[in-house]
Batch of 2 targets.
Target 1
Amino acid sequence: MDQQTSVELLRKMLEIYSPSGKEQGLASFLRGELEELGFRGVRLDRAGNLYGEIGSGLSVVLLCGHMDTVPGRLPVKIEDNKLHGRGAVDAKSSLAAMISAASSLASHAINGKIVVAGVVEEERKANGIRQLLREGLSVDYAVFGEPSGVKNITFAYKGRLDLRITCKTVPGHVGAQHLLDNAIEKSFELWNRLRTSAERYESPRGVFHSLTPCLTGVKTRRTSGGVPDISILQVDLRLPPAIKCADGIGIMEEAVGDFQRENEKASVSLRVVDKVEPFVASKDSALMKALREAVLEVAGGPVRLLRKTGTGDMNIFGAETGVPVATYGPGDARLSHTPYECIDLTEYLTSIEVYRRMLEKILL
């Protein structure tokens, strides 16, 4: 695949709006593209993930990117050598680069197999990568496509807890507000308690090593039309490697329990909606060595190894399989989820060559 064709592939992908849960149109388009590019065994699984294979042999490399984006349409256009559009950074450019790199080896006698997977719902509950694991793919190495920048490799992510904390108080007339607890006000007292509890785990080594909560939503109800008596806090709790999901839940439950004992008229409960363990990949694996060498050869040095404060599909896959993993892809991660999302086309094309060199080092 030449450079212009690779750019055109990414442009078409950006023109297909694919927020989490609505990836079918992009999956259908890419299925046809993979078949035309010479991929074998092109298929969709029950979750809507897309797979295609290049080569054959005992060694198997998985290149995994996600097809979904956050909601919000953006105009697709090229200006000043930058391609704009939702997903240009996070992370259709990585998936397009993986497809381009793998297809460039279709006519080579590679000593192994490349599996390219486009998964769904990475931006939501990671149903795609969980289904991929249920499919029972046997691979020796896995690279995940997320924006690291072409001279950087991500080897560590924080974990995540998605929590719902409900505070209920006795309902009553607004005119009697001086006699009643307001569930909204109580829930914000509770939020301050939760945040204070998390601050005890702040690390002098920085935010990656600290427990960091974020209040992402508040829902309230007035069941009798009076003083609010139900308030639900949506809390995103990011976990450093030293604090596993069970530990994070315990810290929050302790804070909720203390608050409950001090506020006997209120009823407080905590529910875990989703959880992803923190993950740190080996920096000394054969995969990491091949990827670092490829970056040096194509993009030059120095090569930085990054710890990210977000989470990724690498967390789930790496923890369950134990195979060597890494995350790599073009783009400035600071543009992810913003109205300014765009990818520098030179960087995008450079990443294709990095993926290709890495594959050659492992499979040729």
Target 2
Amino acid sequence: MTIDESLLEDVDRSVTALHTTRSAFIRDALVLALRHRAVAELERRHAQGYAEHPVEPGELDVWESEQARGAE
């Protein structure tokens, strides 16, 4: 794996500050990146679903009485 020297220096500073290892830091970063990618894909699919099947007027009115309104 190739990492730019300046990026590796930033990683090493973070590793020192966090009292961890370079391997653990990079492993955690990869896990977070994969989670971010998965969430982005779910959001894309969600948006696509609404684009293909938009909510019809009045479709969600039945849930109006279930909404929390706060202090009234």
